[in-house]
Amino acid sequence: MDANLPIDEHLWLRLIEGDEVAFTQLFQRHYSTLVSYGKSFIKDTDRVQDCIQDVFVDIWLYRCSLNHSVSVKAYLFSSVRKRIARFYTRDHIFRHTTSLNDVEFSITFTVEDRLIANEETAVRIYQLNRQINSLPPRQKEALFLKYHQGLNTEQIAEILNINYQSANNLLHRALVQLRRELKGNVSLLLLLFSELV
Amino acid sequence: MQQRNQYQSVENFLNDESFRKWVLEGQGNHEWEEWALENTQRAKLVEEAREWLLALHLPNETISLVDVQLALQHTWNKIRAIEDTSGKAKTHFRPLFWWRVTASVLLVSTLLGVIYRMQSDTLPEPQQKTHSMAEQTSALVEKKNITGHPLLIMLADGSSVLLQPNSTLRYPPVFEEKERKVYLSGDGFFEISKDSEKPFFVYANELVTKVVGTSFRIKAFSDQKNVEVVVRTGKVNVSAGNSDQEGLLLLPNQGVRLARQSLVFEKIEDLTKEKNHSQELSNIERLSFEFTDVPVSQIFKTIEQAYLVKIDFPAEKLANCYLTTSLSDQPLSEKLKIICESLGGRTTYAINENKITIHSSGCN
């Protein structure tokens, strides 16, 4: 086995060979994160936990047919997303989706305000935060996967079930869009400020 | 690190792990601050990227370790359930050792005993149950009595077990949802808390005793020919090994002898006729817990003798307290609870190993 493999990929190989401890460790390493991810689609914690546990059950039962070299994190996120999407559509909650895999990512980014130095910066940051939160769900999800889960564009593409270029566009669009809006709004704000002073 | 000199856009910074760490965690390797201030253009970009990160925050909602463990256990349960049904089991599969005997009769009775001796080499581990045993063995507590006197064990549901010398009890610190299961090797006197939703099972060699709430004694030594079940009061189902047959009903003054080798049941109609029996009664089986106008100090004494515990209580405050109560067939925790409630006056008890402390302001 390759000694240079990151931990997850190591455990993955051992899991495929039937190592229960490896399974347990992977579970412990990722469960909490996956639940947070799942909850950005469905608020019902119990359902989310059920879905994720079912994902792990299948991973164990069908371990023989698992691909040896995967990005474990991307695989887990992808599986959870698919399972929740399936469950979601079955529940008929989401009426205006056309595709089976279309669940809406709804998370609210917050502001890390303890690190803000002054009032002026705060205004900008809160504005930016509002803009980010009003981005289309797919773009928000891409941002989340990239900046909170440390996944690369290729992995994000796999999870969102789109091609590499589309994933790249999603990320790019989010940032460009926001910067444009921000510039506009900031000038407006500066204008307002100057009026007040 | 030199790549950052090439950074043109906010995106580049956002993608930089080290930059993110510096902004969010203040981990100041690579001197980001100094580097940023080297020129104004760069400073602006850094500031913008920094603001981005601050606006893209998420609350840290992690699940507690305990909950993760529970989820893990739940997951393994699901796996085992699927593996069991699809794999080896037929519809009426029973391991060779066991055949189920079901019956239950609720009868209040005087001391009964039917002694059966069974032979067995190991602790009960029927084929079918290996998975749940395997799951649980890491979670089971094992108490072996290596002293020369009975050892009191309190279970999570309030039941008490008096484990005789040279005996071992294996039990979970917390019981499962649907059943309460313990494993006995040797001799133990059980007083089980009533819970009709959760039947209590004692696995002792080839015998499975199912109870809902009762007191009884089981003797199942590995080197003996028979398994003993002594029923004191209450409801007892005796199951033996692996079979589809109906179980044997134990009535007061009756008993079942299970010869381990042949797995043959023999019913004993009258326990009082059993010669060896009375000599082997432990204190708890001999003592009476029916009290009529008895000073509470005496009740405590009886409990001390029965359970081999030491009870510390405010003697002067309780000097003139007399109780009329029936404490038979109650696990120790219940007995103490009843006494405390009867005394009133905010009386409480605390158990620590084999020492019981009573706090009370009197019975007036």
Notes on the structure:
- The complex is a heterodimer of chains A (197) and B (364).
- In chain A, helix 2 runs antiparallel to helix 3, helix 5 packs across helix 8 (164-196) and helix 6 crosses helix 8 (164-196).
- Chain A has two domains: 7-90, RNA polymerase sigma factor, region 2, helix turn helix motif (Rna Polymerase Sigma Factor, Chain: A), CATH 1.10.1740.10; 113-196, Arc Repressor Mutant, subunit A (Orthogonal Bundle), CATH 1.10.10.
- Chain A has helices at 7-16, 20-39, 45-61, 72-90, 119-133, 137-147, 153-160, 164-196.
- Chain A is an all-alpha fold and 197 residues long.
- Chain B is of the alpha+beta class and 364 residues long.
- Chain B folds into three domains: 2-55, no CATH class; 98-280, Sandwich (Jelly Rolls); 287-359, Phage tail protein beta-alpha-beta fold.
- In chain B, 26% of the residues lie in helices and 29% in strands.
- Chain B has nine helices and 18 strands.
- Chain B has helices spanning 10-14, 17-25, 32-36, 40-55, 65-86, 130-137, 283-286, 296-307, 332-343; strands at residues 98-99, 117-118, 141-145, 151-154, 160-163, 167-171, 180-191, 200-204, 207-220, 226-241, 248-249, 255-259, 264-268, 290-295, 310-312, 322-326, 348-352, 355-359.
- In chain B, the strands form three sheets. In chain B, strands 1, 2, 3, 4, 5, 6, 7, 8, 9, 10, 11, 12 and 13 form a 13-stranded mixed β-sheet that branches. In chain B, strands 15-18-17 form a three-stranded mixed β-sheet, with helices on one face.
- Chain A binds chain B through residues 24, 27-28, 31-32, 35-36, 39, 49, 52-54, 56-57, 60-61, 107, 109-113, 115-116, 121, 124-126, 128-129, 132, 143-144, 146-148, 150, 171-172, 175, 179, and chain B through 9-11, 14-15, 17, 20, 23-24, 51-59, 61-63, 68, 71-72, 74-75, 78-79, 82-83.
